[in-house]
Design a protein that fits this description.
single chain; 3-stranded mixed beta sheet; about 10% strand; mainly alpha
Amino acid sequence: MSKNKTSKEKKEKPVLTESEIQKKRSRKTKVAISCFVLLLGVGVMGNWYWENSDLSTKVSTISNAKEKILGEATYVDATTEPSTENEYFSSARVDRQTARDESLEKLQKIIDSSTESKEAQKEASEKIAKISDIINIENKIETLVTAKGVSNCIAVINENSDKVDIIVDVKELTDTVILQIKEIATSQLGCSYEDVTIIQSN
């Protein structure tokens, strides 16, 4: 009889009321939310520290240094000379564009002005169209010349559109290369061979 009683006592579990069940659930929910908020806070703080400390800079510097060490000889030898040439051509293009922009701005002011005569406005409009044509021809010449194997090229056409200076980046300016460049320039600009000046940059 005593054995049966003890087994019955073990089988019987304490019955929880609805309020106790809700309390347990709310506790679990609160614990879960607290953990989530804590993790979120740690993540935000970690991210802030990474962005605002020197650690990220040091890591990127170390990785860059390793990359440079691995390919140092090839990297230096391959880029020393071309970078100087590219700077020259980039600078020349910027200077040419700046001069064109200034001219176009002055001409546009004449067109927009209410005090200028219709003849002056018409002339300014024609000059703008001419500059636009010059820019297109220069771009075509540069594209076609580089297609012939020239590393870099810049073409500068004068205001009258009858002469062009072409600066090229080639190791050897042979008669064949000169003839090819002059043929391209004359076909695009409609000028004579004598009006094409070819300058070797290096």
